[in-house]
Amino acid sequence: MKVTRLHSTNDVLFPTFERLYRISFPEFEQRTFEHQAKGLMAENYFLHCYEENSLFVGFVAYWEFADYVYIEHYAISDKVRGQGYGTRLLGELIASTNKTVILEIDPVVDEISQKRLRFYRALGFVENDFPHVHPPYQGKFHGHQLKVLSSGRKITEAEYQQFNQDLKLIVMEK
Fold first, then answer.
1. Euclidean distance between CA atoms 82 and 98, whole angstroms
2. How far is 47 from 7, CA to CA, in rounded Å?
3. Is it the case that residue 36 has pLDDT exceeding 90?
4. Which of 2, 17, 53, 172 is 20 to 30 A (C-alpha) from 145?
5. Which intervals hold domain N-acetyltransferase (predicted)?
6. CA 56 – CA 20 distance, rounded (Å)
7. Mean pLDDT of the chain
């Protein structure tokens, strides 16, 4: 599988990434174009796009910090969904680091969110019990409650506080 790290909105794969990004997440969970452009300039922000046989498979957008990796956004193209690519991409990311991997999911309230939690559990993620509100991506929205998952083990209160601070001050910097 071919992996391409995007560095700017001018990269050839950016429009393909953006199409999948815009249909995969509700508007309140999306960076604006300008916010995405700024993120791409950060040394510790990685937007990896995946292709196989010239077919766009999906992307993983993540931040690497000293003690952990935070997956901010991740999506698989509906053209290949259900073929194991999601498990493969996340499995390879987790295996590539000795750091804890953190991500957020919607609260588990229905069958779809239960299925999503089962998917992440199968990859070794565990739920953390910290009440967590993700800051708004855009001024017209409010923060939204999410569940924090971490790979392999629960994170400590101190680790959660560091993640939450990095999220507010670095990831969400406009």
1. 28
2. 8
3. yes
4. 17
5. 4-147
6. 10
7. 96
